Amino acid sequence: MTGATGAARALARCDALAELSSLPGAVERVSFSPEHRGANALVGGWMAEAALLVRQDAAGNVCGRLEGERPGLPALVLGSHLDTVTDAGRYDGMLGVLLAIEVADRIDTRSLPFALEVIGFTDEEGTRFGNALFGSRAFAGRVGDDWLATPDRKGVTVAQAMTGFGLDPTSIGDAARRPEDLVGYLETHIEQGPHLLDAGRSLGVVTAIAGARRFALQVTGRAGHAGGTPYARRRDAAVAAAEIVIAVERISIETGTIGTVGRIRAFPGGVNVVPGVCRFSLDLRAEQDEQRDAAFARIDAAAREVCERRGVTWSWEELYRADATTCDPALVAAIESGIRAAGDDEPMRIWSRAGHDGMAVTDVTGIAMLFLRCGNDGISHHPDETVTEADTADALEAFAAAVLAVADQHRA
Ligand code: GLV
Ligand code: MN
Ligand code: MN
């Protein structure tokens, strides 16, 4: 298949996957759901059409393999994730898996000094259980009992959800890979921001992935009558939280970190009741972990000051932490050579503000990423996420050429 035809097919498959959604008229596909099962079946079928040997691993990741010049060689793994955020676009994750299948379809792997594997990871986003990178952490052998005991909003734990999906949570260790069985991990992903768009480039090479921490924050005050409680006597948790949200933005801008409060709820939630409790989330990321951690220390101090002044109390719990990841220099060079093969002589370097499965996979093998331009002002985690077929064709050319460049490195 040519780059253009392969790109068109990958995009049509993104449309087909978008139909597997738990929300009418919108996209949401969370781990261990009927939609997850459907996506693994569809993607597994496309892998099989491309002659890959397909299986679902102990974490619910769908994996396909093509042998190299002889059976049993360590594998170069190409992949991304098949789960989504709520009211998602149709390219974040999925496009990387589908382009990996196109690469596997184009390359004659019998001349490669390694096997080629394609993986569709489960639960990169953490939409259901709050803790992201489940499938790729399992691939790296880093899912412990605490994680399996984490409940979703309905109280169903990861272990229970896995059992309902037909997996055995006590066998999660079987999803773990050994470094000696791996050559490296390459992922193609939409940029999820406007940097390539602003630079007029279709492709970029990722040098590092930002480290992220996610917190559950809480302000506790005292509920009371909306009419009868004088201002001087109120301990309004939502107003204190509002001040803290403003402080998150100010401190993030001042420290060059990226802080987002994406979820906020006031309790008891009556229109005529002063909020007694406010629970909200914080997602904090930066290129350097020290920068991110220093920003959180300032946010914590600012929140204490607000809460003391307002006579309410402040508490937080850390739900997720992934440190910044540096991409492997040899694999970065392979991606750069792929971008050159696709016609751009000066590959643009970029650090990823979004999290990716590579942050987990890096514990067992080197990783690198190829970014492709998002349209629509770079919007992502939104139904208006978009890419062009021409950029997707460039990405496919570059991705396939990067695999061949890794093969050249291995032969040298
Ligand atoms: C995943 O998309 C993340 O960066 O939160
Ligand atoms: Mn995402
Ligand atoms: Mn993603």
Q: What do these coordinates show?
A:
It is a single chain. This protein folds into two domains: 3-210 and 324-411, Zn peptidases (Aminopeptidase), CATH 3.40.630; 211-321, Alpha-Beta Plaits. Helix content is 36%, strand content 23%. The chain contains twelve helices and 16 strands. The chain has helices at residues 3-18, 34-49, 94-106, 134-139, 145-148, 158-164, 195-199, 237-255, 289-310, 329-341, 358-361, 389-411; strands at 53-56, 62-66, 75-81, 115-121, 182-190, 203-209, 211-220, 224-225, 258-260, 264-267, 273-274, 277-286, 313-322, 325-326, 348-352, 367-372. α1 packs across α12 (389-411) and α10 (329-341) packs across α12 (389-411). It is globular.
What molecules are bound to this protein?
glyoxylic acid, manganese (II) ion
CATH architectural arrangement of the largest domain: 3-Layer(aba) Sandwich
Assembly type: single chain
Overall 3D shape:
globular
> Could you say how many structural domains there are in total?
2
Main sheet summary: 9 strands, mixed
Estimated share of beta-strand residues: 15-25%
List unreliable stretches of 5+ residues. Answer: none
